[in-house]
């Protein structure tokens, strides 16, 4: 299967640069994965699509202010994107500058790009493949440094600097566990009121954790998608979530994953054929031909052309139906990507019992 099979043309003006004023005011394209039928609705209509006994599975990760600016002692400017905290004072990070820093390089941080150093420092202590190992040993914890001078790591296709409002809007209302450098964007549409109404209707919910890494934006460079090396992300699927999935299936309800991160979490925990608790890294790569074991429906935003996430939803509802739905979304001027509109997708075939 070729990367080009997942290409589509997207007018630049359809890439949402800001969220709508109301979280649940987004549009919702509903796709029947079996027939390919499309219905245009509003996200606030979601309750009409859910049934008592269904289970919503949310990713409760919380985005950290992972983007930092600074300079080397030589004066060279650089940008840091923390990929993963590995300890109180250590992390793996991407560093963008004219010349890659060597181990031992001291970085003087600034509150804004190009600003004077603020007195906080980091040290590059090594490499881990393409990532740099950074440390704040001898100073504040890295989380404290990020909270003081870090910025929300908006995706590369949002072509503006982060603003104060992004601290709240690029975060789900149920975010609880710090560790992500990108938001689980399908969850951004939910409000406390919508969650309460779903519960009142008899829709159950549970959470998993997947700390989204910057690798989620990594392009597929291989022409044959089977040659793509998938990035790893940390997940936790506990026994409570597993039991919630089993109970939903037992009562005839659907397991509705809120976002591709929830899909990857549930399916990583179901590789044996039965869902079981899982803690650790996953590099699961879901593409057409994959047999889903724990997910019956997906709520998701629209994804980048030729991306692994577009391949994931194409596995769920068939490439043909997804690509036709994306063409319709473009024609109907839907808003794309993180701050854009959403889809509700039902499975293309009956899933295996979890």
From TrEMBL:
Pathway: tRNA modification; tRNA-queuosine biosynthesis. One of its GO terms (cellular component) is cytoplasm. It catalyses: 7-aminomethyl-7-carbaguanosine(34) in tRNA + S-adenosyl-L-methionine = epoxyqueuosine(34) in tRNA + adenine + L-methionine + 2 H(+). GO terms for molecular function: S-adenosylmethionine:tRNA ribosyltransferase-isomerase activity. It is found in: Cytoplasm. Keywords: Cytoplasm, Glycosyltransferase, Isomerase, Queuosine biosynthesis, S-adenosyl-L-methionine, Transferase. It holds the Pfam family Queuosine_synth. Belongs to the QueA family. Transfers and isomerizes the ribose moiety from AdoMet to the 7-aminomethyl group of 7-deazaguanine (preQ1-tRNA) to give epoxyqueuosine (oQ-tRNA). HAMAP family: QueA. This is S-adenosylmethionine:tRNA ribosyltransferase-isomerase. The gene is queA.
């Amino acid at each position: 299967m070729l990367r080009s099979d997942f290409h589509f043309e997207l007018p630049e003006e359809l890439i949402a640069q800001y969220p709508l004023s109301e979280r649940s005011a987004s549009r919702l394209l509903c796709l029947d994965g079996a027939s390919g039928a499309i219905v245009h609705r509003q996200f606030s209509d979601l309750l009409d699509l859910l049934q008592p006994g269904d289970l919503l599975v949310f990713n409760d990760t919380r985005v950290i202010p992972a983007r930092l600016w600074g300079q080397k002692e030589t004066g060279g400017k650089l940008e840091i994107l923390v990929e993963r905290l590995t300890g109180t004072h250590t992390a793996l990070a991407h560093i963008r500058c004219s010349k890659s820093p060597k181990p031992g390089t001291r970085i003087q941080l600034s509150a804004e790009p190009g600003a004077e150093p603020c007195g906080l420092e980091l040290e590059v202590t090594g490499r881990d493949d393409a990532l740099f190992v950074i440390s704040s040993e001898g100073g504040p914890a890295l989380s404290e440094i990020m909270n003081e001078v870090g910025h929300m790591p908006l995706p590369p296709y949002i072509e503006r600097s982060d603003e104060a409002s992004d601290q709240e809007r690029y975060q789900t209302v149920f975010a609880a566990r710090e560790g992500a450098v990108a938001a689980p964007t399908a969850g951004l549409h939910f409000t406390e009121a919508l969650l309460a109404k779903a519960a009142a209707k008899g829709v159950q919910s549970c959470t998993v954790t997947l700390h989204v890494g910057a690798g989620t934006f990594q392009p597929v460079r291989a022409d044959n998608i089977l040659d793509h090396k998938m990035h790893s992300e940390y997940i936790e699927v506990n026994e409570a979530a597993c039991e919630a999935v089993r109970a939903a299936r037992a009562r005839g309800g659907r397991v509705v994953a809120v976002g591709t991160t929830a899909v990857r979490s549930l399916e990583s925990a179901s590789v044996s054929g039965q869902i079981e608790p899982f803690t650790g890294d996953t590099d699961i790569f879901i593409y057409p031909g994959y047999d889903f074991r724990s997910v019956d429906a997906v709520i998701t935003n629209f994804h980048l052309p030729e991306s692994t996430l577009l391949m994931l939803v194409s596995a769920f509802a068939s490439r043909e139906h997804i690509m036709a739905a994306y063409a319709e979304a473009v024609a109907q001027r839907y808003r794309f990507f993180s701050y854009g509109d959403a889809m509700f997708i039902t499975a293309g075939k009956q899933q295996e019992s979890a």
